[in-house]
């Protein structure tokens, strides 16, 4: 049994970078960012193929975001060395800095509720939607819904239950993308008996 | 609706840059998702074509953006070398370690510490070897898609015998 390809002689190819090339060097950060954006786009496209109901896609994206968020919080804490939040305003600022670290954007914090338990994050730009146009039959699709899951998952890991949803979306012709975040409750630490 | 979108694209400098760990977590979720959707084939192999397809569509698009201001490639080997060096190091932080070809349309790209396997197995670990195809299918598609947009129709398969090293076999289809 001879695999055809192995009947030929093999040759090594030198991979020394060709210095005479005139092209500019690729910017690894930029490439990584586009890789993420495009991969996310491919995922949404795949979900659109697999599910008939747009609501199911929104749910699926949220769930995936949740799974990412519970891991991402560890990166966040390790990099920033930040401690527990004093209050929900502190939380809002930390979420904002999380966007800076991971997506390179700084959403503005606005529209605090009088009770101080609800605020909005407004995005003027959003790397996730960089190459995106929504076709008309996808009006109910929350394209960036993964973000709501990420926030929920990340906050849950620091004993905070939040609810999170989009109220405005640039993909749907709004001026900004607005993500509403609501504090629900503190989760109790499950401390083993006998420890403080 | 369309007008809005054109406006937002008129300002390319305002876009942020995603951190590299996001891709890794997202990739993990893709794998996760595909596994819940797929049924095992008769041989007990997992059905990973969804992953491959997603990789293909990403590769097809990303190469177009990366090579936009690049000088024209001399030939097929030149394109494959670009994939092994600049493309690979931008995506996966290191070059392909070894490229071999039989000069009859088969290329073997060997990466001794592939980024998506790097944290799965320490040197020569066999523990997660069985699961490793899940972590390679997307990149197989990525390679196939990139080459497709450069005008090379191919099939790409991956094999790994010891983590975290792996080999990608590119078989060019000549018409």
Question: Would you write up a description of this structure?
Answer:
The complex is a heterodimer of chains A (196) and B (175). The longest helix of chain A is centred in the middle third of the chain and has 27 residues, at 54-80. Chain A has a domain at 53-186: Trafficking protein particle complex subunit 3 (Muramoyl-pentapeptide Carboxypeptidase, domain 2, 2-Layer Sandwich). Chain A is globular. Mean pLDDT of chain A is 87; it is low at 1-5. With 196 residues, chain A is α+β, with helices and mostly antiparallel strands. Chain A is built from four helices and five strands. Chain B is α+β, with helices and mostly antiparallel strands. Chain B has helices spanning 2-9, 20-37, 49-66, 76-92, 115-118, 132-149; strands at 98-101, 106-111, 154-159, 166-172. In chain B, α3 packs across α6 (132-149). The longest helix of chain B has 18 residues, at 20-37. The interface between A and B is large, with 62 and 63 residues. β1 (11-13) of chain A pairs antiparallel with β1 (98-101) of chain B.
């Amino acid at each position: 049994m001879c695999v055809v390809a192995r009947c030929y002689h093999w040759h090594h190819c030198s991979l020394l970078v060709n210095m005479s090339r005139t092209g500019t060097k690729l910017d690894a950060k930029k490439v990584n960012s586009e890789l993420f954006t495009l991969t996310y786009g491919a995922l949404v496209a795949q979900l659109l193929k697999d599910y008939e109901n747009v609501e199911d896609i929104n749910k699926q994206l949220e769930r995936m975001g949740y799974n990412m968020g519970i891991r991402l919080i560890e990166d966040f804490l390790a990099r920033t060395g930040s401690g527990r939040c004093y209050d929900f305003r502190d939380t809002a600022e930390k979420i904002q800095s999380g966007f800076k670290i991971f997506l390179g954007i700084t959403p503005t914090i606005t529209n605090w509720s009088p009770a101080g338990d609800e605020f909005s994050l407004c995005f003027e730009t959003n790397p996730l939607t960089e190459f995106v146009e929504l076709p008309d039959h996808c009006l109910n699709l929350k394209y960036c819904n993964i973000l709501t899951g990420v926030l929920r998952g990340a906050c849950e890991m620091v004993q905070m239950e939040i609810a999170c949803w989009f109220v405005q979306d640039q993909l749907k012709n709004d001026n900004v993308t607005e993500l509403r975040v609501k504090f629900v409750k503190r989760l109790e630490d499950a401390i083993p008996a006998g420890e403080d | 609706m369309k007008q809005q979108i054109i406006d937002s694209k008129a300002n390319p400098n305002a876009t942020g840059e995603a951190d590299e760990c996001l891709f890794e977590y997202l990739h993990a979720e893709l794998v996760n998702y595909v596994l819940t959707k797929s049924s095992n084939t008769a041989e007990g192999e997992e059905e990973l074509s969804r992953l491959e397809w997603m990789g293909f569509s990403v590769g097809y698009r990303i190469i177009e953006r990366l090579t936009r201001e690049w000088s024209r490639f001399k030939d097929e080997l030149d394109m494959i070398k670009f994939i092994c060096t600049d493309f690979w190091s931008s995506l996966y932080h290191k070059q392909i370690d070894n490229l071999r070809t039989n000069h009859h349309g088969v290329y073997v790209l060997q990466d001794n510490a592939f980024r998506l396997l790097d944290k799965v197995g320490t040197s020569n670990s066999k523990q997660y070897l069985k699961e490793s195809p899940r972590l390679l299918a997307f990149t197989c598609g990525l390679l196939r898609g990139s080459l497709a947009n450069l005008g090379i129709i191919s099939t790409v398969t991956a094999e790994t015998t010891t983590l975290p090293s792996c080999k990608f076999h590119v078989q060019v289809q000549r018409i």
